[in-house]
Specification:
This protein is about 0% helix and about 40% strand. It is elongated and about 205 Å long. A hairpin with a 5-residue loop joins strand 46 and strand 47. It is an all-beta fold.
Length: about 625
């Protein structure tokens, strides 16, 4: 295709055995085929009239017309096939001038990063066949590999954004012309940006040790905690937190800045060292962290005063002992040195302090008077070494059993109903003893006969009914209760009278004094005359024992007085052989009245009524579990 125009490509000749002497021929190319070629009409030499381009036309078929002007004239046509040979006149090219590629740093080796696709305008195979190569602009090991035939760019080694944030590569595309010197080359600049993943934990760069004076103000900056994370963006944003060691809330940590400040006053004598476990946490997903144990040393300031070995001393001494009794020895220390550490003890003024003396040098405390526990059991004494601190002394006077138990009342009285359930508590005795310990611990018991009706809980003093009560049998119980202390030596006791009144409940039916009652009434008895009187008794009290009488079936001949039980004739008897039976009820007046019945047989002198049952045998069926009182 690089053949220059106006040069002879070839010559068309007629075969020699067909040529006569002086024979004239004329050569021409068909009009449609003479764009790139021309032919000498006389000689048949074929010329290139314009440059050829293999990539446009790689083959031509020319129709050459040969005219013979001899006699007789004769024309012939020759088809000329021309193949254009490719010349490597095109360089490979990329569609882009510059490529930026992003890839995460944690991809495995062999991951496809990008596929390059260069083009070559040449037509033949080798002239347009492209091989790729790679060159890294900056020094160091190239972490990428390109396939020479397919143009695929892959990772050749692990990536680390924290070492190389980006890589600048030059990708070459070269055709494979047979003649190496004819090969053509093009290149493409490629920037590969290594994208961050959260693959690095924060690391502390600040010191794990800090010092602070104990007398600093609240809010004082103690330490600046710093942790670095080589990742970027949110993966590198670090926040700080205290995991442990700050249970007393002595410090506050700003989670953003890492500034650690005091949240309360420090005291070297209380705690001279803090060990804070601090975590630095990035904002990646998942978040990564690192911990550091930060040791804070609280430095001492000259603020020490003498301090008692105990803030509170407790001891006991017997009552009724002579003055001079040893009580206790108190002791204080001063961390200072020299004269400032020499201590002088004294008792501060207060209630009862005059009953004690303090040795100013040794700190020994003795009694200055005889003590009485029941007058004052506890003494609270303050002792002080000179210049500063105080200690509290609680002195307990030990008890002797010099008091008897005392009941809260001089006599206990209570009323209970006779239907009280067995085991029910009716009252609580209460006695106290001013003594202490076993000497003041009270136990209860009963003396005198309660007829088995009552018992007392020895510890609580609760009196309990131990059997069913019956007012009609016994309406009042009187007995004595005893309160005794539990002293192991010479126990003391007190008695009190207990009266229990038994109140009535309606638990008895009325009882007829006679049943049945037979009454003889003369036929000539006058109207409104009392012919008989029924009597009944109820052992209950009050309305529970008040009885009224009624006829179960209303009568016109007889009437009963509801209060007296008198049966009165209201109509004359109609015959001398008159007889009848009256059913009389006696009912008490309780809330749930109880009733009894009696039969009154009335007959004249001439006729004596014989009482008899209507049947010689009565039979009935009663279901089991029937309620009481059912008919």
């Amino acid at each position: 295709e690089n053949f220059k125009p106006a040069q002879v490509l070839d010559s068309l000749k007629a075969p020699s055995n067909h040529l006569a002497p002086n024979r004239k021929l004329h050569f021409s190319i068909a009009k449609d085929d003479n764009v790139h070629f021309e032919i000498d009409s006389l000689t048949g030499d074929l010329y290139l009239s314009r440059e050829l381009d293999y990539e446009t036309d790689s083959h031509f078929l020319l129709q050459v017309i040969i005219k013979d002007y001899n006699n007789p004239p004769k024309n012939s046509t020759v088809f000329l096939s021309i193949d254009v040979e490719d010349k490597n006149d095109h360089s490979p090219y990329f569609q882009d001038d510059f490529v930026v590629i992003g890839i995460e740093e944690n991809v495995p080796v062999g991951t496809l990063v990008y596929t390059f696709n260069a083009k070559d305008g040449d037509g033949s195979f080798l002239n347009s066949k492209i091989e790729y190569s790679l060159e890294m602009s900056n020094m160091g090991e190239n972490p990428f590999l390109i396939h020479p035939l397919y143009g695929t760019l892959t990772t050749a080694s692990p990536l680390d954004r924290e070492i190389n944030r980006s890589v600048i590569l030059t990708v070459f595309a070269e055709d494979q012309a047979i003649n190496v010197t004819d090969r053509r080359l093009s290149s493409l600049a490629v920037k590969i940006v290594i994208l961050d993943v959260n693959d690095n934990s924060p690391s502390f760069v600040s010191s794990p040790l800090s010092y602070v004076m104990e007398d600093v103000e609240v809010g004082f900056l103690v330490h600046h905690i710093i942790a670095k994370d080589p990742d970027e963006g949110r993966n590198a944003q670090v926040t700080y937190h205290i995991l442990s060691g700050n249970e007393n809330k002595a410090f506050v940590l700003d989670k953003i800045t890492g500034l650690l400040t005091t949240a309360q006053f420090l005291d070297h004598e209380v705690q001279e060292r803090y060990s804070l476990t601090v975590i630095a946490l990035d904002d990646g997903s998942p978040a990564l962290s690192a911990t550091q144990v930060l040791t804070i040393i609280v430095l001492d300031a000259n603020d020490e005063t003498p301090v008692f070995l105990k803030q509170l001393y407790e001891t006991a001494v017997h009552e009724n002992r002579d003055p001079g009794e040893f009580v206790i020895r108190v002791e204080a220390v001063d961390r200072d040195a020299g004269l400032n550490s020499l201590l002088h003890y004294e008792i501060l003024p207060g209630a009862g302090y005059e009953k004690f003396k303090m040795n100013s040098e040794s700190g020994e405390l003795i009694t200055a008077a005889s003590l009485d526990r029941e007058t004052q059991e506890v003494f609270s004494i303050k002792g002080s070494p000179s210049r500063s601190s105080t200690a509290q002394l609680y002195l307990t006077v030990l008890d002797e059993n010099d008091h008897s138990p005392l009941f809260a009342k001089t006599q206990y009285q209570i009323s209970v109903t006779e239907d009280l359930e067995e085991g029910s508590a009716i009252m609580d005795l209460s006695a106290s003893d001013e003594d202490a310990g076993l000497n003041g611990e009270v136990m209860y018991s009963l003396i005198d006969d309660t007829y088995g009706a009552f018992a007392v809980d020895s510890v609580t003093g609760s009196i309990i009914a131990t059997k069913a009560l019956d007012r009609e049998t016994k309406s009042q119980y009187t007995f004595r209760a005893v309160a005794s202390d539990c002293s192991t030596h010479f126990p003391r006791s007190t008695t009190v009278s207990v009266v229990v009144h038994i109140d009535d409940v309606n638990d008895n039916d009325p009882i007829f004094l006679q049943n049945p009652i037979r009454v003889f009434v003369p036929a000539e008895t006058a109207v409104n005359e009392t012919v008989a009187t029924v009597r009944a008794e109820d052992v209950d009290l009050g309305s529970n024992g008040a009885i009224t009488f009624n006829l179960m079936v209303a009568e016109t001949v007889f009437q009963i007085d509801v209060k007296t039980g008198d049966i009165i004739l209201r109509e004359p008897l109609d015959s001398k052989d008159f007889s009848t039976q009256l059913v009389v009820t006696a009912s008490d007046q309780g809330v749930a009245p109880r009733t009894a019945t009696a039969v009154v047989v009335i007959f004249t002198e001439e006729q004596e009524e014989v009482i008899s049952f209507s049947c010689s045998l009565y039979e009935a069926s009663v279901p089991e579990n029937s309620a009481a009182g059912g008919h």
